[in-house]
């Protein structure tokens, strides 16, 4: 090894040692980490028992019922990656099936035992997912339903007789491009504002948000620490700000507000 290489390696070692010392020094002055919440692992958060899946013909009804009793639910398998890869046709199907029939096409390909003959003929009878085959009456019914139930797609699907996936695809792919969607969005925004309690979402002293204490005599809100004198905790009884106390502005207090939350949490 040459002398210049030894010198360079020595410089690198010194730099590395200095960096380690700086890191140790920084860690000494660092505050201890806050207590971490437990990781969400376990039966309360993940499925621990996955029921079996399979395809059953008419003469296997008894087996299906028997397994259903054992596992409560019995699901139909809709895709087998090993069989799909072995067929060598999965990529062809994926590239040639239109986007609005892609999901149904893959399921149908599985039901056809991953074979091409007759696949495209049968798939042509499957309705597209995005609602491009809907009649004018069906589209009008969807519009009426989305206005009646706002954005509750579950109720819209039930009212229109369509699947939730079908309604979602039509909503995002077609309805959001219409003037009706813009009007619906505006109406929902107004309704959302009207349902709020009317209190300010910022502190009347520092103009900042966060967890605020709401006055029971006006619409002002305050940080506990911004009050003079500061408060350590939210009062259990009705609380009035200094302005309301000095102006004796108790007549604007609404009894209904007593049932509301005593503070507003910040994000």
Automatic annotation (TrEMBL):
Query: What does the organism's lineage look like at the top?
Result: Eukaryota, Sar, Stramenopiles, Ochrophyta, Bacillariophyta
The alphabetical list of record keywords is: Metal-binding, Zinc, Zinc-finger
Q: Which residues form the PHD-type domain?
A: 200-247
Record Pfam families: PHD
The protein depicted here goes by the name PHD-type domain-containing protein
Q: Where is the SANT domain?
A: 129-179
MF term (GO), any: zinc ion binding
* Naturally occurring in which organism (per UniProt): Ditylum brightwellii
Region described as Disordered: spans on this chain = 23-59
Q: Which PANTHER family match?
A: PHD FINGER FAMILY PROTEIN
Which InterPro entries does this UniProt record tie to the protein?
Homeodomain-like_sf, SANT_dom, Zinc_finger_PHD-type_CS, Znf_FYVE_PHD, Znf_PHD, Znf_PHD-finger, Znf_RING/FYVE/PHD
Cell membrane is among the record's keywords: no
């Amino acid at each position: 090894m040459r002398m210049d290489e030894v010198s360079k390696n020595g410089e690198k070692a010194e730099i590395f040692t200095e960096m380690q010392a700086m890191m140790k020094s920084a860690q000494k002055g660092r505050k201890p980490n806050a207590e971490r919440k437990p990781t969400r692992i376990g039966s309360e958060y993940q499925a621990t028992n996955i029921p079996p899946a399979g395809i059953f013909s008419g003469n296997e009804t008894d087996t299906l019922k028997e397994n259903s009793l054992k596992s409560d639910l019995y699901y139909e398998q809709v895709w087998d990656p090993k069989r799909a890869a072995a067929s060598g046709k999965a990529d062809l199907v994926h590239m040639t099936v239109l986007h609005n029939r892609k999901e149904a096409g893959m399921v149908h390909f599985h039901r056809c035992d991953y074979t091409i003959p007759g696949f495209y003929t049968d798939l042509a009878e499957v309705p597209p997912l995005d609602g491009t085959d809907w009649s004018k009456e069906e589209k009008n019914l969807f519009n009426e339903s989305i206005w009646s139930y706002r954005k509750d797609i579950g109720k819209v699907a039930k009212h229109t007789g369509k699947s939730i996936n079908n309604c979602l695809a039509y909503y995002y792919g077609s309805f959001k491009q219409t003037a009706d969607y813009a009007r619906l969005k505006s109406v929902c925004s107004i309704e959302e504002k009207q349902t709020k309690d009317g209190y300010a979402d910022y502190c009347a002293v520092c103009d900042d948000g966060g967890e605020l204490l709401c006055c029971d005599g006006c619409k002002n809100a305050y940080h506990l620490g911004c009050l003079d004198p500061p408060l350590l905790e939210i009062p259990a009884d009705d609380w009035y700000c200094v302005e309301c106390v000095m102006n004796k502005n108790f007549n604007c207090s609404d009894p209904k507000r007593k049932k509301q939350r005593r503070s507003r949490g910040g994000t």
